[in-house]
Write a structure and sequence with these properties.
This protein is of the alpha/beta class and about 300 residues long. It contains 12 helices and 8 strands. The chain binds thiamine diphosphate (TPP), iron/sulfur cluster and magnesium ion (MG). The site of iron/sulfur cluster (SF4) has 12 residues, from helix 3 and helix 9.
């Protein structure tokens, strides 16, 4: 089925009443993931905005139309390892086992259980929605917050100028686990995302699959709620968030030969409004170096 028909015909598995902020990138991506996955799915969402927004269910007011469980912040991948093993034993490989976890739950608190499940080749799809911070608890920095980000724990003032460390680049770390499938995706390139989620689900029948989604957060990043897709698009077009996939060791990179300057993206976000031209030049250099590395890996 082509992309438009798939989205047009598939059921929205999120009930009314979900309370994510207006313009939330993660909410849009969650809906699309579930439209691709369908009803025969078990989802795990650790504490974070997507759990807090009510998708795991509040009273009988809202929730999902499929089984969904909220594990701890640090054990999503090990929790789902048990679930998928149970379904393999019951000879039910048809059930899609999917995690939808924030960057804090993925790159920080849950990193150990994620890395272990990936190395063991557990048959599941782990999706990280990366809004670059602990948004649900008040916009604290995480290890994926970009250098220079203004967050509630890396403020801008006399002592500090936003986050001073570089971002931990999870997609490459996961690719180096040599799992069945790794991809990055963005809501600005929805057809690409839908294709990758489809492939990720197929790969999860054979082993571990990981997708890292760029998830603009208007409330935490400081952009208008109707700019979410524009932010995501500029992140891709500037190579700030490169789109690639690694399928059984085979790399495919969406190469931007003529990227826009990274300042076109940074200027949209109030979390970067304090940056000097020098700071922006440093971020540009980081972005260019990472893209060069990805080009080399995908050419090898
Ligand atoms: C071990 C532990 N520490 C702290 C918390 C409190 N907590 C709940 S949600 C959350 C933020 C999670 O951030 P992330 O995974 O990036 O998801 P987001 O809120 O950004 O969607 C935190 C710190 C917790 N639930 N468990
Ligand atoms: S704080 Fe950000 S990630 Fe969380 S619900 Fe609001 S827009 Fe979405
Ligand atoms: Mg987060």
């Amino acid at each position: 089925m082509n992309y438009i028909d798939l989205i047009r015909q598939s059921e929205d598995l999120v009930t009314a009443g979900m309370s994510a902020c207006q313009g939330c990138g993660a909410e849009l991506c969650l809906r699309r993931v579930l439209q691709v996955a369908g009803r025969n799915t078990i989802l795990s969402i650790p504490p974070g905005c997507m759990a807090g927004a009510g998708v795991v269910g509040w009273n009988f007011d809202n929730g999902l139309k499929i089984p969904v469980h909220i594990p701890l912040l640090d054990n999503t991948a090990s929790f789902l390892s048990g679930v998928t093993n149970m379904y393999q034993r019951k000879n039910r490989p048809d059930v899609n086992i999917i995690a939808f976890a924030g960057d804090g739950a993925t790159a920080d608190c849950g990193f150990q259980s994620l890395s272990g499940a990936a190395e063991r080749g557990e048959k599941l799809l782990y999706i990280c929605y990366d809004n670059e911070g602990y948004m649900n608890t008040g916009f604290q920095r995480s290890s994926t917050s970009s250098k220079g980000s203004r967050t509630s724990t890396t403020p801008v003032g006399k002592v500090q100028d936003g986050k001073s460390q570089n971002q931990k680049y999870m997609p490459l770390i996961m690719a180096m686990h040599n799992v069945e499938y790794v991809a990055t995706a963005s809501p600005s390139n929805m057809k690409d995302m839908v294709d990758k989620v489809t492939k990720g689900i197929q790969a999860s029948k054979k082993g571990f699959a990981y997708i890292h989604i760029f998830s603009p957060c208007p409330t935490g990043w400081g952009h208008e709620t109707d700019q979410t897709i524009e932010v995501a698009r500029k992140a891709v077009k500037s190579n700030f968030f490169p789109l690639f996939e690694v399928e059984q060791g085979k790399w495919k990179l969406l190469d931007n030969k003529n990227p826009i300057p990274v300042s076109d993206l940074l200027n949209l976000l109030r979390k970067f409004s304090h940056l000097s031209p020098d700071d922006i030049a440093q971020i540009q250099e980081l972005v260019d170096k990472r893209m060069d590395l990805l080009r080399k890996l995908s050419a090898a």
